[in-house]
Design brief:
The chain is mainly alpha-helical. The chain is built from 19 helices and no strands.
Amino acid sequence: MRPAARLGLLASLYFSQGLPYGFFAKGLPALMALQGVSLEGIGLTSLLFLPWALKFVLGPVVDGRGRRKAWIVPLQLAGVVALCVLAQLSLKVDFGLVMALVAVVSIISASQDVATDALAVELLRPAERGAGNAVQVGAYRVGMVLSGGVLLMFYGDLGWEGAFVAMAAGLLLATVPVLRYREPPRAPAAAAEATVPFLAALRGFLARPGAAAWLGVLLCYKTFDALPGRMVGPMLVKRGYDIESIGTVLGTLGSVAALVGAVLAAWWMRRLARVPALLIFGLLQLAAVSLYLLPAAGIGDLALLYVAVGADELFGTVATVALFATMMDACRPGWAATDYTVQACLVVVATGASAAVGGFVAARLGFTGLFAVTSGLTLLGWFVARHLLRRGVLDRLQAPEPLAPVPGSV
């Protein structure tokens, strides 16, 4: 399979994940704010994505049973069905059922992600991981901003039903590349080893030198900048923007910035070692989230808000690409689904908990206080990650021999 075809396949799969998530993470909070839902309630919607934090349980199952495609295709189609059901509901009338189905879509997307991440680790050669993760993050971000931005721009014409039908159609279209993909059979040895229960597989990952310190880096690097994750839309509502204007800010500019960030990340990752890339991009991520302090305080006009949103999408994408590429490097041969998912789940747990708290911080300190706290904690996290990285955690996190026995079983 040619490199361009591999990247195109991965782009379609990660776009599929970002498409519903963008609407739930960006559009849904704004719509809830327009209906008068409290900031605390909006912040707690991040808990609907708890399945992303629990998907590590599926890692050994996906590694040990069947090809990746056999998991991905049914899950993609299940997502299409769920979105079509959501299209028939009303946020105001069927609020509880809508939230339940959002959780169902989250379960589907998280399960698909386990198989997709494993496929990505196996498809991409080490030299391609910078570009591969740029495509991964860029496609995911494009899906997010299309549903959480562009769809909102036309929400007045589409309405709730039209928005969900459009997302279902996009997800169905993105399933075509994986339907056409001819996946080679997996090595029998790899499949046999992967039948080890999850806790034993996890112990095998944690037993590696530097594993605990690396998980500390993951916690510090992305947790705190996620604190205001559900609050940008409500902040814009408070400033008097309607849902179409919010879509313009988060969609048009956000999509362009995310694409630029993905391209820049692919270019930079070919020229920078992992540690310098993580530290430089982490500082850029900090600077971007700090820019929100100005519009949160009512300083500046729409142009300044565009700068803040654009910087957040651009540098957030760049930092995420660097982190995900390094996470792939940390996977043991034959344990892609397990090892990558363990790392990804830790990031999801940390960022999800942070976003859930964000609404309570905003309700008590205001949006200015929220972004001030976010900036301070993100800076602290960067210093801790820098300390761990400079102590050579990545050098110590050496993969064992391929398919080395996993200690213990449960």
